[in-house]
Amino acid sequence: MARKDFHHPFQPYDIQQQFMETMYECIESGKVGIFESPTGTGKSLSLICSSLTWLREHKRKTFDEAMAAIDVEEDEPDWMAEHAKDARRQDMRQMREEFETRLQAVRDREQKARERRAYNEHVYKRRKVASDDADEEVSNEEQYMLDDYESDDERTKTGNGGKSDYSAETTKLMERLGMLQSRKQDGAAEEDIDELKIFFCSRTHSQLSQFVGELQRVKLPPGLPPDSDGSAQSKVDSTVEAVRQLTLGSRKNLCINPKVTKLRNQTAINERCVELQQSSTSGEHKCPFLPTKESEDLVLHFRDHALAKVRDIEDLASVGAKLGICPYYASRPAIGPAEMVTLPYPLLLQKSARDALGISLKGHVVVIDEAHNLMNAIEAIHSTQISETQLKLARESLMVYLQKFRNRLKGSNRVYVTQVVRVIDSLLLFASGLHGAAGTGGTLQPGQLLSGKGVDQVNLSKLVRYINESKLARKVESYIKNFSRAQNGAAPKKDVANPVADVPTLMHVQNFLLTLLNPSEEGRFFWSKEAKTTTIQYMLLDPSEHFRDIVQDARAVILAGGTMSPMEDYKQQLLPYLPSLTTFSCGHLIPPSNLLVRTIAADNDGPLEFSYRSRNAADIIRTGKALLEVAPHVRGGLVVFLPSYGFLEQVSECWRKQSIGVDLQKLKPLFWDSRGGSVEATFREYGEAATDGGRGAILLSVLGGKLSEGINFSDDLGRCVVVVGLPFPNTETPEWKAKLQYIDEKVTGRGEPKGKASREHVENLCMRSVNQAIGRAIRHKGDWASIILMDSRYIQQRILSKLPGWIKESFPSGSASTVDKVAEDVQGFFHAKPT
Ligand code: SF4
């Protein structure tokens, strides 16, 4: 059978072809799929080529179907029906051409500018940045954001004053094809482009930038079928159509106002931007880059520039800077006509963020890359906490504010502010009551937090609405800032417990009260004590409900990653309501001889097991001795992963006493990760020693720690990766106990043995961490490495089954599992490799 053409820029390998075909089928049948493709196997290009090939083919198919379905009168002669169809086709092409011609003009201008090496001489006069005294009164963020977005109604028009050039039939056809979308607003029909699109989401902007780099290589045929008679004098290339792509980002990445960007903190930048837009902020102090009615043309120019080329976030920010228009806000009108929108996790995963950006996922395709951490990310986004220190600071600020304004506050304002103080007092009462409590944490009922004096009289729902609508947090914070400056000539007191102290402390109270008012059933409240402060937190225990609206809205959802195994966890914990999922795990591009995988389950003294309960100093010494046998055969870098920083510290101390560290150091220089140390410096020094062609180096690191994710151990940086033990979480904490109980309760009635679901989850979590670490060793098709799993539990079938397919394949049945035999195999493996 002929291989399907996915317009891959290179000849795809078989595994890439299989990946793309499975993904294409998954999108076509509107399913959710989990795709695993190890690093170095061209995952990004597979995702791009498969999704965009589907998108363009789907558009063409829909176009053909729409043409075939055009109503013709029964008694109408054939030539008239054909004429009507031709007219529709022509209209479609005209629309595409108009837009494409504008984008092409932008590309041409940019090309010319590049050739003249004078790109910076843009014709738009940069508006002057107004002075900013940073002491504006503050207000409500949502109000502004919505106004700004909605006011930009020109984005939906076709450049002819908002009137469509097309007949009613053509307009209907365009709506069907997603080239136009009907929207009713204030009773009036409005035309809005909502192209069928792929939302591509990843964790960080640097991952998105890499993805954009790959996207720039891809060339695809157009979304409309070629002109059958070839007579059209098109100015647009009919064989290739550039992908209209847009990168969305946060203000931190896109803000171009230097008075705002100088604030380091993302929340502070958000707050300042909102402050600068308040109606109470005088004109000359407002942000001059904010799109307004007067700058609508500029916003349209920006949209065309944004879509004319595939751009990453920095590129988009510089387009905004050159045009003198805020790229954060001006990029919104480009969402509708884009075919591919790249965005970071928080913008996709939070409904409030999607709503603020005007993103609807309805009928579109969602691709989430680096999805191995997706469940954690959803849980973190929907969890909240407040510390006793923050509560005290919020109360202090409110009292200063009340002292000043009490007599000027109108009746209901005074009542509400007093109620806020009362609620804070109640939370503080609970927090301080825990000082003498036994243990370091526990669960709590929301009612316990609201048992303070007079709180039963407070309508929490009304109070939260009041805090929000009155902008109390910003007003108090703003006054306190001014007050502190005036009083002390110095910066206000900082919330030392809070790393994002530039956020008004009352905002944390506001967020916490919001959760308290409306906790989802899938979460629980906890308290914990550390040092001198108590923290109250709400934790989401189940990410599935918060992900469900994405799954329901989108046509298809693809979760992709280099290490998605064990996949069962996504089925059970994230998508339990789906009857079936597509799963795909591909092998590596390396030949089998480039990978050696072994377990060390025992040494001469018996089985080795490093569980939290059973491990002791003697086991730690045995680990060192095992490494002393293996290390002499390893060339380049030897990376040892341990289950926790606590264990790493135990190992360090024990080896020092027993001189094992010294013996290893004689073989190769030894480097240690540490809780508080600089990862960059350690990794740099290790990397230099591992790759200098000399003795190589040993790095002691932690599973799930700073060096296990995101750091590349390719080639000589990691020729041997040893994982000692299994990193099970400490399931004795109140949070873990609650989570596991929740998981088991959820499956009650399925007839499973008690505790099976929670045990499975913990093992899956543990093995995902192991798989992440060992996946660091092979990074490209010419790479080679050995992987050693040191613990007798690794030979259990249940654990082995959770390894990625490509690692499992390298496990010979009955593979050697004692130290001496594994050392022998490692020696043979390195012997066969060129020096
Ligand atoms: S409107 Fe844009 S440029 Fe102005 S402060 Fe806000 S994010 Fe920055």
Describe this structure in words.
- With 835 residues, the chain is an alpha/beta fold.
- The chain is built from 32 helices and 21 strands.
- Strands 5-6-4-7-12-1-13 form a 7-stranded parallel β-sheet. A 6-stranded parallel β-sheet has the order 14-21-20-17-19-18, sandwiched between helices.
- Helix 23 packs across helix 29.
- The radius of gyration is 30 Å and the shape is globular.
- It binds iron/sulfur cluster (SF4).
- The site of iron/sulfur cluster has 13 residues, from helix 12.
Short characterization:
This protein is α/β, with parallel strands linked by helices.
Please describe the structure with a list of short key phrases separated by commas or semicolons.
835 residues, 12% strand, single chain, six-stranded parallel sheet, alpha/beta, binds iron/sulfur cluster, 32 helices, seven-stranded parallel sheet, 21 strands
Ranges with pLDDT <50 over ≥5 residues? Answer: 117-166, 181-191, 494-501
Give the beta-strand count.
21
Bound small-molecule species: iron/sulfur cluster
Computed Rg: 30 Å
Tally of separate helices: 32
Biggest sheet, open or closed, and with what strands and sense?
7 strands, parallel
Distance between the termini: 43 Å
Q: How does the overall form come out from the CA principal axes?
A: globular
Share in β-strands:
5-15%
Overall pLDDT? 83
Structural class: alpha/beta
Helical fraction: 40-55%
If strands are numbered along the chain, what order do they take across the biggest sheet? 5-6-4-7-12-1-13
